[in-house]
Amino acid sequence: MTIFLIVCVIMIACVMMQPAKNDNDAMSALTGGAGDLFSRRKARGFEAVMQIVTTICGALFFILALALVYVSSH
Predict the structure, then answer these.
(1) Which spans are transmembrane here (predicted)?
(2) Which terminus of the chain, N or C, has less C-beta within 10 A?
(3) Which sequence spans correspond to the domains of the chain?
C-alpha cells in the first residue's frame, strides 16, 4: 500500500510538471482545437522525458492497483 501511495504522488507530480501543448486561445476553444489536428510534433527534451516517466508511473499504478485487488480478495 505504501508503494502504491508513493507511485500515486509521483504520478500526480509528473502530470503537473508537463508543459501545456496548446495555445489556449479563443479560436481554439470555439472550434474544439481542430487546427491542432495536423500540427502534431514529436516531443523533445524535457517534454519527452516527462511523457516517458508519466507512462511508466501510469503502468506501475495500474499493475499495483490490480495486485492490491488480488491480495485483498485472497
Answers:
(1) 46-71
(2) C
(3) 1-73
pLDDT at 58 over 90: yes
Other CB atoms within a 10 A radius of the CB of residue 69 amount to 10
Cβ neighbours around 22 below 10 Å, total: 11
CA dihedral 53, 9, 70, 55 (to 10 degrees): -20
Residue pair 18/54 in contact by the 8 Å Cβ criterion = yes
- List pLDDT tens digits, range 14-34: 988 887 766 555 555 566 555
Torsion of CA 46, 51, 52, 55, to 10 degrees: 160
Helix (H, G, I), strand (E, B) or coil at 20: coil
